[in-house]
Amino acid sequence: MSRSKRTEIRTETREMWIVHRAPLETAAADCGECPEPSPLISMTEACSLTGITSEIVCALMATGAIHFSVASDGQLLICTRTLCRSQNEMSKLVG
Ligand SMILES: [Zn+2]
Prior knowledge:
Strands 1-3-2 form a three-stranded antiparallel beta sheet. 35% of the residues lie in helices and 11% in strands. It has helices spanning 43-50, 54-63, 80-94, and strands at 40-42, 68-70, 76-79. The protein has three helices and three strands. Zinc ion is lined by residues 31, 33-34, 38, 67, 79, 81-82. Zinc ion binds next to α3.
């Protein structure tokens, strides 16, 4: 009686982006809704960082999936924490 022994090696890769940026000239605000500090970024930055279109970001903001704030100058600011979370969830759906 022969017994074969099989060794399986699994590797798991996770991708994590850590974005370091120079401090903004204006004081960078944190999201007021997140329990932990989460910097707010502009819509342009949000789209270029994630590859998500502004239409989808707006739709996610409307559902509450992405936090946002409006600066005193009227600029829309997006919460990076919920933005990244939404991006992760979208990438799961896409495959
Ligand atoms: Zn937030």
